[in-house]
Amino acid sequence: MVANSTVEAQSGSSGGAIVAIGNLGRIAAVPWKNEGGQTRELCVEPPDADFASFVWRASVADVGRDGVFSTFDGIARTIVLLEGGGFTMYSGEEQIHDLRECFAPYSFPGEAQVSVQLHGAPTLDFNLMIRRELADGELVAMTEQNSRRLTADTVLLYVAQGVACLSDAAGLQRQLRTGEFVQLRDAGLMPDLLCAAGAVVLAVHIRRKKPG
Questions:
Q1: CB atoms inside a 10 Å sphere around CB 22
Q2: pLDDT in tens, 23-36
Q3: CA-to-CA distance for 58 and 212, rounded, in angstroms?
Q4: Are 12 and 22 in contact (CB under 8 A)?
Q5: Residues 6+ apart with CB under 8 A from 94
Q6: What angle do CA 159, 100, 119 make, to 5 degrees?
Q7: Which of 35, 40, 60, 210 would suit a FRET pair with 83, their CA atoms being 20 to 30 Å apart?
Q8: Do 64 and 84 form a contact (C-beta atoms < 8 A)?
Q9: Which residues in the chain land under pLDDT 70?
Q10: Does residue 80 come out as left (phi exceeding 0), alpha (psi in the -120 to 50 range) or beta?
Q11: How many whole angstroms separate alpha carbon 159 and alpha carbon 183?
């Protein structure tokens, strides 16, 4: 479930696919695992899982100073710059990535000892974590050019910029704006995502692995 009591649970004709809708601005920030920054958790599966037991987790972090990322053994991580100057990522003395371009996902192992050096202004970034032994997946930036019917493995949408609309076969339309997010589940027929010009929606895809 979405990890905040202020989200709007869905029912009726949309209840098949749309589980809940929330807004980043209504989620309280909490310290990172290593207390080096703040984060706002959008969704965690299973509901109320802690750092040691989640299958996947999506959050938005504030990075206001140079520092070190928390480590997560067994976790595949993807980070996306939402706003701000970005930062250079290092593993030891080696530069591994320059997070400067907004809405461009970058993946790295959670076990890595990563430090960051800001380019200037504080940043806001989207983070996806997936426990590798239980699931795999990816984070895709969707725009007007690749708006389409969502696939069954789409579990979360986050509007990073602009306006988008979810439309289902029953004729229901739901407009979404920057900072809003939607949790989804496979309900047979998934809705269409329509992005307005200039809009960017981050789509989280998760595929559970079969035991054994």
A1: 22
A2: 999 999 888 777 76
A3: 26
A4: no
A5: none
A6: 120
A7: 35
A8: no
A9: 1-15, 36, 171, 212
A10: beta
A11: 12
